[in-house]
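dumping this here so i dont lose it
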């Protein structure tokens, strides 16, 4: 089985960290439960300049390394690897954040998992001859069996995989979204995610 796992807000508590950053930089007090939009500029009601400053601050290496792990994530991913499944972390983080992002993974028990920065939004110049970047044409060649994702914005990147089972990690910004099909399932934590492949009996899927 080939498994896609999103990084932010699936493996680590990125949005929770950004609520603290917004309060520290701008005095914006927005409880995590009120982060109703995946677009943090909209959730925190920031100007373009404030949003840019917040993103620069949030991507400093020491800040990225301070993010808390989502409970249970490393345990489940390592179990999947031990069972022979191929797990790939696919993130929309900019290529420039790769080194601290990789270090965070290594320090939190994800050392055996490969990570790729997917150029979803054309935000970065493509870094050639790298083993960690991925352009969309490369991504669309991969046939995933299972995905763990939190962002409704990312659902369109699964349209080419009609049989893909998508675990939507329950977050405030996806509470009201409509799922594209019956192969999407809302999950509240990694304990629940861990049980789904057992229920589907797809342990032997190549």
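and the seq i came up w/
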């Amino acid at each position: 089985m080939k498994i896609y796992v999103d990084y932010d807000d699936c493996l680590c508590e990125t949005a929770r960290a950004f609520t603290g950053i917004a309060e520290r930089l701008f005095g914006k007090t927005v409880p995590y439960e009120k982060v109703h939009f995946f677009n943090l500029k909209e959730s925190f009601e920031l100007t373009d300049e404030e949003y840019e400053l917040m993103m620069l601050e949030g991507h400093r290496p020491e800040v990225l390394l301070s993010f808390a792990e989502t409970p249970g994530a490393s345990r489940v991913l390592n179990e999947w690897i031990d069972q022979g499944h191929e797990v790939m972390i696919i993130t929309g983080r900019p290529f420039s954040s790769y080194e601290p992002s990789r270090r965070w993974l290594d320090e939190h028990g994800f050392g055996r998992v490969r990570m790729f920065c997917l150029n979803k939004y054309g935000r970065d110049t493509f870094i050639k001859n790298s083993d960690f970047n991925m352009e969309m044409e490369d991504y669309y060649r991969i046939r995933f069996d299972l995905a763990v994702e939190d962002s409704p914005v990312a659902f369109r990147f699964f349209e080419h995989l009609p049989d893909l089972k998508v675990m939507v990690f329950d977050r405030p910004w996806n509470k009201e979204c409509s799922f594209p099909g019956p192969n999407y399932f809302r999950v509240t934590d990694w304990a629940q995610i861990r049980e789904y492949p057992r229920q589907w009996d797809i342990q032997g899927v190549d």
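The helical segments are 14-26, 40-43, 48-58, 61-64, 73-82, 98-107, 136-139, 190-200.
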